[in-house]
Amino acid sequence: DSGVTQTPKHLITATGQRVTLRCSPRSGDLSVYWYQQSLDQGLQFLIQYYNGEERAKGNILERFSAQQFPDLHSELNLSSLELGDSALYFCASSPDQGRGTYEQYFGPGTRLTVT
Amino acid sequence: ELKVEQNPLFLSMQEEKNYTIYCNYSTTSDRLYWYRQDPGKSLESLFVLLSNGAVKQEGRLMASLDTKARLSTLHITAAVHDLSATYFCAVSYGGATNKLIFGTGTLLAVQP
Prior knowledge:
The complex is a heterodimer. Helix content of chain A is 0%, strand content 52%. Chain A contains no helices and eleven strands. In chain B, 0% of the residues lie in helices and 57% in strands.
C-alpha cells in the first residue's frame, strides 16, 4: 500500500458525459501527478500540481482539467467523454521538491470505461 | 522531446536462468526509475537511480545506470515465477517538475 488513495476504483459511463476522479496523496506529499494508461498510448503523464498550483502539463486534452485543493487532494475532471478515453488513470504523489529521490508513489488507479 | 525505449517488449524466461531488460532514453536526465506492474494493479517502485554508474540490487533484480550512454539495465538473476509481471522504466523530464516519461514496458513471463 503506497499511501495514495484514489476513488472510485471503477467507473462506467456513456459518451458525452462528465466524470470526476479523486486522489488523496500520501501524508505530507505536496506534489500530485496524474497519468493515463491505455493499450494504445501506454503510460502518459497528464498534469502535475504542487501545493495547489499547476506545475507541469503533458498530453492532457482540453476536455480534461484538474485542480489541487488546500488539503492537497486532487481531482481530475474529464468531460465530453469519448470511447478513446477509456483507460486506467493513476495518481501519484511525491514529497516536497528538493528532497531526496523525488520518488513517485502511485495510487491503485481508477479504471474508466466509456460505453 | 524525451523518448524512452525498452526492449524486449516481451520476455519468456525459464526458471533459474538470467535475463536483462534494456532501457534507452533520448535526452539527458538525472533520474531513472524502475517500476513493476502486476495485471490490473498499480505501479510498484523497484529502484531509483540518480547518478552515473549507480547500481542497486534487491533480491534477484539488479538495476544500473549509464548516463553517458543514456542506458539503464534491469538484470534478473535465476528467474522465478514470482517475477512474472510487466516492468517499466521511467525517466524524469523537466527539471524540478519531475514528470515521468515511461518506456513501453516489458512483459516478463517465467515458464516452469
